Amino acid sequence: MPHARIFQRPKNAMQSGNHRTAAWQLEFEPAEAKHADPLTGWAGSGDTRDQLRLGFASEAEAIAYCTREGFDYTVVPTPVKSLKLQAYADNFR
Q: What is the pTM of this model?
């Protein structure tokens, strides 16, 4: 039975806004280890679920999908967002 991980996308380090951070994502854990291709040397496996990411509007929708399809799942809690408020004048103190 495949195991899924449900989480909220973190904000990118290069991103100042909150675009697409409220959506929830579902990823499947790999079923087999990756191995190097003898011809190209690229890492790969026969598990196609590794390429699949599903997006949901809420955590409840993602959990309902996993329950309906019979997947085991783990919900990764969203880290608390803290703002470091700093004034430009603080650079000269």
A: 0.76
Q: What is the CA radius of gyration of the chain?
A: 19
Name which residue leads in pLDDT, 60 or 82: 60
Beta carbons within 8 Å of 90's beta carbon, 6+ residues apart: none
| pLDDT tens, position by position, 12-25 | 778 777 787 889 99
Angstrom distance (rounded) from CA 82 to CA 70: 36
3-state secondary structure 4-16: EEEEECCCCCCCC
Task: CATH number of the domain at 86, please.
Answer: 3.30.160
